[in-house]
Predict the 3D structure of the following.
Amino acid sequence: MTIRLMLVDDQVLLRTGFRMVLAAQPDMEVVAEAGDGVEALQVLRSTAVDVVLMDVRMPKLDGVEATRRICSEPGAPRVLILTTFDLDEYAFSGLKAGASGFMLKDVPPADLLAAIRAVHSGDAVVAPSTTRRLLDRFSPMLPSGGASRRPEHKGLGRLTDREREVMLLVAQGLSNGEIAARLVLSEATVKTHVGRILTKLELRDRVQVVVLAYETGLVRAGGGTLP
């Protein structure tokens, strides 16, 4: 199966570089490009795309808002946010907007290709430990419990005790293998639990599980859970 890609970046030279790398892959095809969020939304109305590589800072409409609008549509393509070291604050906003992950623009080509394939298969491309560090860094922006805690997500009440336990471990940055070892389960069983959690909470991937856990106050900065 060929992965249909869209490049969204206001720098033509950068798009050209990415396109050269991607075009050399037998399972990938760049089917569309756009120089800003507005153009991206227009192109997507008439072009079938599987994965969007999205820049953050662009004229007319930035990548975060463009991601939010794209991901709000039924059957939307997956979005991979591309950022730089000094724009990490946008990565969290991008994840909240529905992106399946983020990477730095200077990522090695092999890592970028692996990330695209992972996103296309339905996985998140942000390593759990990286997600945890990012959220810890920006935890002052998030509710920390008490009066500032947001109302509990309605879907949390539908989780079983085991699913809630797995969710909290995902939110603390543990991989499926680490969760399996902690709970004495098989990785396949953990993966099944994670899938059910995503379905019940109506989330796209485990990255959004982490975001939800922090927003609702289930997990504190540093990985601790509420009693």
The two ends are 46 Å apart (CA to CA).
